[in-house]
């Protein structure tokens, strides 16, 4: 543990930020699984809703800094391919 007061605060802040980033990445994985399940089931309405929510969450994560912009673009591209019915790599 750090001895300097400002460093103690920085450690706490880093932990809060790590958990916030973790929430975004976990939510993105969840929406991706839901999208894949909806596409596999052939449910177009649910797949559209899940795809929209996934893209929205990815954009927020990139804006917030939880994801790099290229990672966000790659995930959105993969989601679009999945939504179109093509297997993603």
Overall shape: it is elongated
Helix content: over 70%
- The total beta strand count reads 0
Mean pLDDT: 93
Question: What is the CA-based Rg, rounded?
Answer: 17 Å
> Could you tell me the strand content as a percent range?
under 5%
Major sheet size, sense and barrel closure:
none
Helix vs. strand class: mainly alpha
Run of helices and strands: HHH
Low-confidence stretches: none
Question: Helix segment count?
Answer: 3
| CA-CA gap between termini | 44 Å
What's this model, at a glance?
The protein has three helices and no strands.
SSE map:
Elements (H helix, E strand, L loop, with lengths): L4 H37 L2 H21 L4 H16 L5
Q: Which labels suit this protein?
A:
89 residues, mainly alpha, 0% strand, single chain
Provide structural commentary:
By secondary structure, the protein is mainly alpha-helical. It is 83% helix and 0% strand. The N and C termini lie far apart (44 Å). The model has no long low-confidence stretch (mean pLDDT 93).
